[in-house]
Design goal:
The protein has 2 domains: 116 residues, Cobalamin-binding domain (Rossmann fold); 221 residues, tm_1862 like domain (pyruvate-formate lyase- activating enzyme, Alpha-Beta Horseshoe), CATH 3.80.30.20. The chain is 33% helix and 17% strand. Helix 8 packs parallel to helix 9 and helix 12 runs parallel beside helix 13. The radius of gyration is 21 Å and the shape is globular.
């Protein structure tokens, strides 16, 4: 069974013990599969089962939304004949507007807040707990989740989250705004236990090569200790996680080739322009990206590099610089391209994406036709909402 699949072994009833007739359902949304796995496990610890549902159900229905699919579910939530709880990156960034059509909003991490909120609701209490918002206001959380306190999944299988939080402040990214600027790591014992349930071990983390570190300087002895603990096929620094280009050193690549099954490494270059990277607060240069590409080739690893086109402050020439970097990577690697999306809660929220130059659009299309490039640089809704 793959992560996110519905397990036929889900035990028990979706009724909360001690609250007869109150059913709690999770609205199945493809983009929120791993969130479902993590929150299913957290609620299960409290005796609450999040039953899968393809629409709102009487009782309580829980949603996790991103900023691209939120419009699709807004009316459904507003019209639902049930108590609705909404979380996820969009709800975290826009809790005031989401609370206008949802009964409750979970802001930020949900492992503690969601089961506590469900208990409050079913026991007829206020529902005003840390980390939640309603039309009446928001109660900020004064805690962060300790990963080892919760399993990454249980009956509803998901990927193993090994780290959370990011010390960088990239202008387009919601991750540090939702999970904080300090990295937290799951312990070796917990990771090994849950990874053992898979033949192929894959992980969720903002930067796989930052495991065990503060996120700004690698501690490869910690990474090696993790890899040594795992005895299945290890896919590290590939989907659904990646690494940062300045972390791609010869020593790091030696670890990947020694312990891991993946022949590719996925990292974010984002732009071919140093000025744009500085504006974004990326914390690395375009040279760092190309150096990482070269090192991958030297170690027999295929680089897969993310780029973003259409930043609001990039010039025509800077967009061409990015296209040149993309073509260079494609000589012996792969590229994944996104169009810039102004996500709420980020410094670039509300910015207008810049048009893609016709010559750049043709270049990306040609590389895609030749199997060198994937992504959605036209309408991002195609990727996230199809």
């Amino acid at each position: 069974m793959q992560p996110g699949d519905l397990s036929s072994s889900i035990p028990g009833s979706p009724v909360i013990p001690g609250s007869p007739g109150t059913h709690v359902c999770w609205r199945l949304i493809h983009a929120a599969r791993n969130s479902y796995a993590a929150l299913y496990a957290a609620c299960e610890k409290e005796g609450i089962i999040l039953a899968p549902a393809k629409g709102p159900r009487p009782g309580i229905t829980v949603y996790s939304l991103n900023s691209l699919n939120e419009k699709r579910y807004r009316k459904e939530i507003r019209d639902a004949d049930s108590v609705t709880i909404v979380g996820g990156p969009h709800a975290t960034a826009c809790y005031e507007s989401v609370s206008e059509y949802a009964d409750y909003v979970v802001v930020g991490e949900g492992e503690f807040a969601l089961p506590a909120l469900i208990r409050h609701i079913t026991e007829g209490r206020t529902g005003k707990i840390p980390g939640t918002a309603t039309r009446e206001g928001y109660v900020p959380a004064e805690y962060c989740v300790r990963l080892d306190a919760y399993p990454p999944f249980s009956h509803m299988k998901g990927y193993v989250e090994i780290s959370r939080g990011c010390p960088f402040r990239c202008g387009y990214c919601q991750t540090p705004r939702m999970f904080g600027h300090r990295m937290r790591h799951r312990s070796l014992d917990s990771i090994a236990l849950h990874a053992s349930r898979y033949r192929d071990a894959r992980f969720v983390t903002p930067n796989a090569l930052a495991y065990g570190s503060d996120g700004t300087r690698p501690r490869l002895e910690k990474v090696e200790a993790l890899l040594k603990r795992l005895d299945n096929n290890i896919y590290f620094g590939t989907f659904p996680s990646e690494v940062r280009p300045e972390f791609v050193t010869d020593a790091a690549l030696d670890l990947v080739t020694t312990y891991c099954a993946n022949t590719r490494l996925h990292f974010g270059g984002q732009s071919g322009s140093d000025r744009v990277l500085r504006e974004l607060l990326r914390g690395h240069s375009a040279h760092d990206t190309m150096t990482a590409v070269d090192r991958c080739h030297e170690h027999g690893i295929i680089p897969v590099v993310d780029f973003i086109v259409g930043f609001p402050f990039e010039s025509d020439e800077e967009q061409r610089e990015t296209a040149r970097a993309i073509r260079e990577v494609c000589r012996g690697g792969k590229v994944h391209v996104h169009r810039f999306i102004p996500l709420p809660g980020t410094p670039l929220a509300g910015a207008r994406p810049r048009k893609i130059l016709p010559e750049i659009d043709r270049c990306l299309g040609s590389l895609s036709l030749h199997g060198k490039l994937t992504g959605s640089w036209g309408d991002p809704q195609i990727r996230f909402c199809s």
